[in-house]
Amino acid sequence: MGEIVNLKRFRKRVEREEASRAAEANRVQYGRTRSERELSKKRSARAAEVLDQHRLDEGDAS
Q1: Hey, is 56 helix, strand or coil?
Q2: What's 55's DSSP letter?
Q3: Which of 9, 11, 31, 49 has a beta carbon 3.0–4.6 Å from 27's, enabling a disulfide?
């Protein structure tokens, strides 16, 4: 005869495995340290500042 399987336990195990895979994907996508986030923020602020410095004024173009 075959092995008896508790379907509730099987479903719970499958759900835990799926949640684990989703958590791993989120860690890869969003898992940055505080210093990495701050460095990224500073770099984007600096890039925006440099871009604004190179912007031409529309009133002086005549």
Answers
A1: coil
A2: P
A3: 31
pTM of the predicted protein model: 0.46
11-60 pLDDT, tens per residue? 999 999 999 999 999 988 888 889 998 999 999 999 999 999 988 877 65
How is residue 58 written in tokens? 């529309």
Domain boundaries, the chain: 7-53
- Residue 41 and residue 50: Cα distance in Å, rounded? 14
The helix/strand/coil state of 45 is helix
**The residue to which tokens 């440099």 are assigned:** 50
Type of residue numbered 9: R
